[in-house]
Amino acid sequence: MSYVLLLWGIFFINGVVAKAVCPGPPQVEFASVHPEKRLYEPGEEVSYVCQSGYIYASGTRRAVCTNAGRWTSVTLRCKLRTCVYPGLLHNGEIHHTELTYQSVISFSCNEGYILRGANSSQCNEKAEWTEELPVCEPVTCPFPPVPEFARIVFHLPRPGNVSIFGDVVRYACLPNYALIEHETVSCLANGNWSHIPECKDIRCPRPTGIENGFVSFNLDRLYHYMEKVSYGCMPNYVLDGPRESRCEKTGNWSIKPSCKAPCSISVKRAEVLYYGQRVKLQGMAERRIQHAEIMAFFCKDEEKKCGYPVPTQCMDGVLRIPECFKEYGRFSALFTTEASSMKQCDTVNSQQ
């Protein structure tokens, strides 16, 4: 009897254990389970596969249904696939925030360039971009126009006799014509050239003379653009300014020089410094110096018992004698030591 009861107990226990099945396996983010069904017998095994667009990162990929009706631990982690950066877009930009699965990047070109190809691309489940990298091609301009009385002096031709964005053309006018506006034009981003210059026939009236001077070969006629005339001065007058004047594109002459007058020296008797040399005024044939020339008069430092030179410059007929200078007559000079005859001061006295 006890033997029968033992067999019955073993049969009962096996029956209970056999019913300890496992429910569906635990879910793993971004992963699918195989095989997938409602209940699993003890010992059955399932495997996990990362979903499309995701790849294995770490952890176990399998789980087993135990006799206790529980699944073994699953530590699988899946991560998004990442596309390789598409590369450099010359003369353009690639706009993106992420490079992972389903991320979208967009393309744009710099000013003066046109996008050839797709304007966006998406990272697919194979970590590949759906579109190829586009190309930014430069805007083209037609052959530049040539204004009347003008010629092109610089132009870089390209295949098809066109120019591209940023190309420059330089113009020049025929002789006697003036270029109005800039001499260079550029191919713009809109496919047009910047403002085309104009060549005009410019004439200037007969140039006027200058006081105490003359114009060389001053003919009574109109003068063409860029023609020049030369000026000169009467004897002892100094030309101040450019010797030549030019007919400009405004129809007027460029700045004219002037003739500056010489300076008469009011002092009759003194020793001075003139071009670094000591000169006696009473020995000069003409007591006169030209405009802009410098002459130094000697002054006394009574305290130090020495003399020092004070320069003064001729400015268009005016020569200011230093206030510290004192002129002595021939007779009074016999009893006085003049500043020019005294030892020279070590430092220049500022008093004048």
UniProtKB/TrEMBL annotation:
Residues 20-80, 81-138, 139-201, 202-261 form the Sushi domain. Its main location: secreted. Gene3D superfamilies: Complement Module, domain 1. GO terms for cellular component: extracellular region. GO terms for molecular function: heparin binding. SUPFAM superfamilies: Complement control module/SCR domain (SSF57535). Residues 1-18 form the signal peptide. Keywords: Disulfide bond, Glycoprotein, Heparin-binding, Repeat, Secreted, Signal, Sushi. Binds to various kinds of negatively charged substances such as heparin, phospholipids, and dextran sulfate. May prevent activation of the intrinsic blood coagulation cascade by binding to phospholipids on the surface of damaged cells. This is Beta-2-glycoprotein 1. It comes from Microcaecilia unicolor.
